[in-house]
Specification:
Length: about 60
């Protein structure tokens, strides 16, 4: 079984027995989705904090 997953060269590894495009495109999509799920909440949090600060300033100005 181990011999079946060994590759003779790096280009053979990238080709993945003719399924390279499918394999690597799935890895690429996975990376994009994981990155989006990590970055999106951080950006949303920054936007929420910025909006809350802006509202606090407006409320402070209206109080005076």
């Amino acid at each position: 079984m181990i011999e079946a997953i060994q590759f003779a060269s790096f280009s053979e590894f990238l080709d993945m027995g003719g399924y390279g495009f499918n394999v690597w495109s799935v890895y690429g999509l996975f990376t994009v989705f994981v990155a989006a799920n990590l970055i999106s909440p951080v950006m949303k949090r920054k936007r929420i904090v910025r909006d809350l600060k802006r509202r606090a300033v407006v409320n402070e100005q209206q109080s005076n």
